[in-house]
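Protocol step 4 of 6: record predicted structures for both targets in the notebook before any analysis. Target 1:
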Amino acid sequence: MTEQDIREHLSTKTFGKQIYCLDTVDSTNSYAKRLASQGAEEGTVVSAEGQFAGRGRFNRTWISSPGKNLTFSLIIRPKLRPEMIGILSLYAAVALAQSVKAISTTLPACKWPNDVLIDGKKVCGILSEALFVDQRVSAVIIGVGMNVNQVEFPSPLDLSATSLARTSGHEFDRGLVLARVLGRLEQLYAFVRDGKLTEIVEQWQLCSTTVGQQITVEQQGGMLRGIAKRIDNDGSLVIVCDGTERKIFSGDVTMNEDGRT
């Protein structure tokens, strides 16, 4: 996929003004972080056909077939306090879910904190990383992996992953998909820029599979079981455990299908 493949569909003002299309890179997030530290402007995009050190949360490996999917990172420079940047993964998830819904016949769902699902399987993952200068947020890199045209996945991913092509029955123009995603990211960024974080939370909850459900949250310090009550404006998940509210900022969420809390 070339820069021209994206630009012929792009109608944004800022996001995608500068685009780097790479064949192979360690990770688009790492490359974008280097650019951001050198002063790259907000809206700069780094896209790659292949990553040899692509990663998700908790340094997990992100597996993607070269030439089939989208792996890209976006540089933004929001004026947010450090404790509020958790909302940005939700912002990105909403934009991705709304884009997927607009360009396909599927109904995607957001799973806290950073996944987009179709029929309960992962189609998009998000990794947001912040750069700080003098304890202030200088930039945030929003990394996205979106399964677009890959229809076969290695075991055991075949049980938990899907793609636009797999669920829709046809391939997609990846340049068009990326252009549409950047357009929606730019539109929703107005809420972030204007401090209207409640709007992000409300739109995320409209396509949430998490709020109101009995869940288990796996963290490095153990397991929590409870009912997902709400999302706060800092992007944290509030759950009720044994009648007490707990705020969770990170962790892996699974639904308790047997109803246990």
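Target 2:
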Amino acid sequence: MSGDWLSSYPAIGGLEPAARERLATRGQRISAPAGAPLFQPGAECGNFLFLLDGTVRVQMVAENGREIVLYRVGGGETCIMTTACLMAHQGYGAEGIAETAIEAIAVPEPAFRELLATSATFRDFVFDAFGTRLADLMVLIEEVAFRRLDLRLADLLLKRGGGGAMEVTHQELAVELGSVREVVSRVLKEFERKGWVALARGRISVADAKGLQNYIQSMAA
């Protein structure tokens, strides 16, 4: 197939000709609708994916049903969970869900390993992406373990709805934060009492972004 899709990944723009040819001929275009499960815990990984368009949510679900979003993969990015599985010959440790309709290029495991072994540019790309995402995960672990939920929720509201309203449920916010709906709802009610947010069914509006920012700063002082 054509390698035109490689333009979505500037970091491998300098691929060696042989490596570029291998990606162009071995990669297969795939697509999935919003909501489609892409991988599950324990499942084997047979392909390295280059996401071209859309968003994939990678999350973990505990036995008690509690969920936490680990990260999202967007167009022009790769999934480190997939990279780790391929390199360690292990099954997935989390689940991946197409948050929107997606298009991607799937490169079979044998071709992925050939590229790692023969292309310095491809190898650097894979490990740079892995290292960057791992650093993000370390930040997430630190926040979940050591930072107060109300401050993390205030941060999330400012990032997602600082400009006004957002369509989101309390359960969805709980998943983002690695908490439970009841706790998130209690904090949101307190934020509403202080006039920082306005709550409606399936909808939250940031009414006073400055108030949320001041609260975060005061708690950090």
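Step 5 preliminary note on target 2. The helical segments are 17-26, 80-88, 109-118, 120-146, 149-161, 170-177, 181-193, 209-220. The chain has eight helices and ten strands.
Proceed to step 6 after PI sign-off.
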